[in-house]
Amino acid sequence: MTNDDKDSAFQALHDAQRAAFLLYMELGDAGDNAGAANAQIRADRLQNEMRNVVNKELSAWQAGAEALIPKLTQAATAAQTAVDQVQGAVATAQKVSAAMQALDKAIDLGMKFIA
């Protein structure tokens, strides 16, 4: 069953529940208390079915989400490891750059001494 099918089925339950509730009100206004009570029971039953459908979907979603948590944790750990490696490489590059600048200064001083 596709998500669209599930949405359509839920909408049909909602429409039926609304119709049962309207029937309940109309029968109550007309003085048919037994019919109104019967319509109320059906509206309540439809409300329970709608709750069951929602709970079932939420449970399925939760199970899928819980299954993804270890994979997401692994991906986050791998991403953090990559960030740490890049930070280490940047620190190394900064040290190399500083060393190169120091060598350039030393060469400049040496060239002044020779000249």
Largest sheet properties: none
Secondary-structure-derived class? mainly alpha
Helix content bin: over 70%
Percent of residues in beta strands: under 5%
Radius of gyration: 36 Å
Query: What separation lies between the terminal Cα atoms?
Result: 86 Å
Gross morphology is rod-shaped
- How many H/I helical runs? 2
What is the tally of beta strands? 0
Return residue spans where pLDDT drops below 50 for at least 5 consecutive residues: none
Question: H/E series, N to C?
Answer: HH
Mean pLDDT equals 90
Domain count, please report it: 1
Present the secondary structure layout:
Elements: H1 3-29, H2 33-114
Describe this structure as you would to a colleague.
The chain is 95% helix and 0% strand. It has one domain. It is mainly alpha-helical. The model has no long low-confidence stretch (mean pLDDT 90).
Short description:
With 115 residues, the chain is mainly α. The protein has helices at 3-29, 33-114. The longest helix is centred in the middle third of the chain and has 82 residues, at 33-114.
